[in-house]
Amino acid sequence: AQNAEDHFGQNQQIVVLGETLAATTQQVQQLQDSYYDILNANKVFVDEIMHLQKLIRAQFQVHNELINH
Amino acid sequence: AQNAEDHFGQNQQIVVLGETLAATTQQVQQLQDSYYDILNANKVFVDEIMHLQKLIRAQFQVHNELINH
Amino acid sequence: AQNAEDHFGQNQQIVVLGETLAATTQQVQQLQDSYYDILNANKVFVDEIMHLQKLIRAQFQVHNELINH
Predict the structure, then answer these.
(1) Contact B27, C28 (CB under 8 A)
(2) What are A39-60's pLDDT values in tens digits?
(3) Contacts of B48 in chain C (CB under 8 A)
(4) Nearest by CB: B45 against A27, A31, A45
(5) ipTM > 0.85?
(6) Chains B and C: how many Cβ contacts under 8 Å?
(7) Of A18, B40, A34, A51, which is closest to residue C49 (Cα–Cα)?
């Protein structure tokens, strides 16, 4: 009987571990998806920053023309 | 006796799994918090990039006025 | 015999839990590395945005000089 009780206790622990692990694995998968969202957002930042750099270079060119006329 | 030893071995494995899972779950929670930090940082980037775009548009307006005078 | 079968079943569950946990822990470690990559990318964004702010301030100075001459 003691052995059966121990066995039951171990089963319960295994069930709880399995449920906790399933929840953790799901949270990790959501974080993985969030990471891809961040990578996409960062690509937009890079594009926009490069666009701003280009505009500012164009403005320096305008300044040079204004100064030289 | 063999059965009791097996039982003890399983108990040890369950304890190690539980500890490893607790450490992993904690690391996942920290990553979740870090993800929120990144989301907040990205909001600041978006605001600042939009502010720079607005300033650059204002400067093109200044250029137009300088050129037309 | 029943007890030995139960024992075998539990062993299998423990093995599966261990393998799943190892895979999850590895994925968490990769996410941790990815998070450091994002932190480094964000430092570059901050530097570049501050550089753009500096350039735009310099251009407003040019404008003031052009307007006052």
Answers:
(1) yes
(2) 999 999 999 999 999 999 999 9
(3) 49, 53
(4) A45
(5) no
(6) 56
(7) A51
- Using CA atoms, how far apart are residues C32 and B27, in angstroms rounded to an integer? 9
User: B11-35: b or e for each residue (b if 16 or more CB lie within 10 Å)?
Assistant: eebbeebbebbeebbebbeebeebb
Listed residue (B61, C26, B49) closest to A51, CA to CA: B49
**What was the pLDDT predicted at B69?**
76
What pLDDT band is residue A32 in, cutting at 50, 70 and 90?
very high
Q: Which of C12, A10, A17, A12 is nearest to B11 (CA)?
A: A10
Put simply, whether C51 touches B (Cβ < 8 Å) is: no
C14/C11 Cα distance (integer angstroms): 5
- Chain B hits for A35, CB-CB cut-off 8 Å, are 35
Q: Is the pLDDT of residue C50 over 80?
A: yes
C-beta of residue B21 within 8 angstroms of C-beta of residue C25: no
